[in-house]
Amino acid sequence: MNTLQSSDLNELAFQDHKLNIREKFKRCFSGPGGTISLGLIIIITVSSIWVGSMTFSSSNISLLLGYLAIPLIVGVFASFSLLAGVVDLSIGGMVALSATSFAYLCTAGLNKWLAAVLAIFICLGFGALNAVAIVVFGANPIAATLGMLVGIRGLARIIARSAPSPRGGGIRSVNDAIPMIIPGLNNFVLTSVSFVPVLFIGAFILTMGAQSFISFTKAGRHIRAVGGDITAARRAGLHTERIKFMALLSSAFGASLAGIFYVGQLESAPVTAGNHMEFSIYAALMIGGYSILRGGVGNPTGGFLGLLIIATFSNFVDNKGIDVRAADIFVGFLLIFVVYLDVRRGGDAFE
Q1: E-only strand ranges, the chain
Q2: From the CA atom positions of the chain, what is the Rg in Å?
Q3: Spatial separation of the C-alpha atoms in residues 197 and 148, rounded to whole Å
Q4: Is 174 left (phi over 0), alpha (psi -120 to 50) or beta?
Q5: What residues pair up with 269 in beta bridges, in sequence order?
Q6: The whole model's pTM is what?
């Protein structure tokens, strides 16, 4: 009798153990970490089969990291507003506004550093308008920032078309783009250490800095608290409105930096800079563990890995010579998929 009971207990324990393994495996691949790992494995595997050894060549990796650098800067700063519970859809327009404003001021003969500072302050001004509408007047963040996106893209187009001719003559504007060569900026953006672009190294350091800020500082915990439960945050004495305001300014600041870097990378300031970036950035942040259902979840490392998936797929599309619009299709379906995952996992944090 005792032997039978012992045997039964061992069998039940064994079945329990198997169930636990299955549950852990399922949980692993239903969360953000599993989603990212599986997505990267699939894309890299398909790329290595269809493209071959070029996938892992230093020149291709350099191209991939160069493509990733500027969106990563935007994503890091945009993630602060998402953590605070605010979706900022105007970031793509802010990139275009920064690029065209910077190039316009440079062609007008202004000092390049001063032009960059003014372009940043212009974007911060519009970011403050977003914050006033959302935080002070209680406007819906998606509606307010979507309206801002449309408005500032139109403003960027007006700026590009009215740009003065560069010193020494030349074409004023071509296809809504201001030609602009700034040797110091161009060299910085295009320089590499071995095969790793300097701009990517800076963006990666920024990501790790943001990760440390969110994980280990009181201010980072306050941002999470405001996004996770604003009522509890208010009861705890946090300045919730100020935190949301600053988070939206942070989002605008990151986009303004990106616009200036795009001028260095493209040697012009097109009004299409940052086009559709808001969707690819948020798709990447969500697959990396952030949530648009509520704030307070996600971290910059997860956002970086989410952006890496999109950059890897775009790189694969380029290498195969497929229509570049396929990348937009991928991002569109990816956004739908991650919204579904976000609902399923209830906004769980990236682990």
Answers
A1: 177-179, 192-193, 196-197, 268-270
A2: 23
A3: 32
A4: beta
A5: 178
A6: 0.84
| DSSP bridge pairs for 192 | 197
Mapped onto helix, strand or coil, the DSSP state of residue 268 is strand
Q: At what angle do helices 2-30 and 325-345 cross, to 10 degrees?
A: 140
**Contact between residue 100 and residue 159 where contact means Cβ atoms under 8 Å apart:** yes
Q: What are phi and psi of 245, to 5 degrees?
A: -60, -50
| Tokens read off for 113 | 């550093």
Give the side-chain half-sphere CA count within 13 A for 345: 29
Q: What is the mean pLDDT of each successive set of 10 residues along the chain, which is 351 residues long?
A: 48 47 52 68 83 85 92 95 94 96 92 96 97 95 95 94 63 69 90 93 96 93 92 92 96 97 92 88 86 84 89 84 76 74 55 37
- Which spans in the chain are helix H? 2-30, 32-50, 58-83, 91-107, 112-131, 141-161, 183-190, 198-216, 218-228, 230-235, 240-266, 277-287, 300-320, 325-345
Q: Which whole-number Å values give the CA distances from 156 to 175, 192, 259, 273, in the listed order?
A: 13, 30, 11, 10
Instruction: Determine contact, residues 127/252, Cβ cutoff 8 Å.
Output: yes
The helix (run of H) or strand (run of E) holding residue 263 is helix 240-266
- Cβ-contact 103, 262 below 8 angstroms: no
Identity (one letter) of the amino acid at 19?
L
Domain boundaries, the chain: 40-47+55-345
Angle at 342 between CA 93 and CA 297, to 5 degrees: 75
Domain at 40-47+55-345: CATH code: 1.10.3470
CA distance 260 to 255: 9
